[in-house]
Amino acid sequence: MRMALVVNGLLGALLLTAADATQAVSLWVAALLVLNHAAGHAVTLAGMGRRPELRVRLSMLQGVALAVAAVALVVTAGRSIAGMAIPDVPLASLTLLFAIGVTVASATLLFANRRGSLTLRAIWLCSRKDVLPLAAGLVGLAASWLLLDGAPDALVGAGVAVLLLAEAWGLLRGGMMGEGVKHL
């Protein structure tokens, strides 16, 4: 779990730096995706051996942060489309290829433990399912390069951000249900 936290944290920092340099919405969203997993691992580690109420509050805090960041990215995507901004496609694409490589390597390392503890299985599933949004970002960047327009990158980024909003809602709803069970 700690290894996944460190890898996701470092990859998220790299993606944030590259997103700032390239202005690619798909990189901002990829950074949010990876940093959300790092936050989930941190919440799990912080909650181990603690009261369930603390874990619920930490998960709800993660959900709120994810929702705010996802909404900000949808707004950023809209501004990118309105401003006709074209990202630095080659650098953004190389960064996403690197992120896919790291994600596939992590999933491969965790493959043997996918039937082990629930935590290792969850980390393996998260690593595995991250490849699709990262690949979608590559498709958006390729379309931006072909069309000489930043809209495809922004639209793909907005689409993934909307999916992250659903994940944020799941964290918040789970936290509220956890709180409700405690009071019954």
Describe the protein.
By secondary structure, this protein is mainly α. It has one domain (2-183). It has six helices and no strands. It has helices spanning 2-22, 25-47, 52-83, 89-111, 118-147, 151-183. Helix 1 (2-22) packs antiparallel against helix 4 (89-111), helix 2 (25-47) packs antiparallel against helix 3 and helix 3 runs antiparallel to helix 6. The longest helix is centred in the last third of the chain and has 33 residues, at 151-183.
Quickly list its features:
88% helix; 6 helices; mainly alpha; 184 residues
Question: Secondary structure elements and their pairing?
Answer:
Blueprint lengths: L1 H21 L2 H23 L4 H32 L5 H23 L6 H30 L3 H33 L1
Helix pairs in contact: 1-2, 1-4, 2-3, 2-5, 2-6, 3-6, 4-5, 5-6
Structural class: mainly alpha
Number of strands: 0
Ranges where pLDDT stays below 50 over 5 or more residues in a row are 180-184
Chain oligomer state: single chain
> What is the helical fraction, as a range of percent?
over 70%
First-residue to last-residue Cα separation: 33 Å
Q: Sheet bearing the most strands, described? A: none
Mean pLDDT: 81
Q: Please trace the helix and strand order, writing H or E for each element.
A: HHHHHH
Shape: globular
Overall domain count:
1
Number of helices: 6
- Strand content is under 5%
Determine Rg (CA atoms, Å): 17 Å
Gist?
With 184 residues, this protein is mainly alpha-helical.
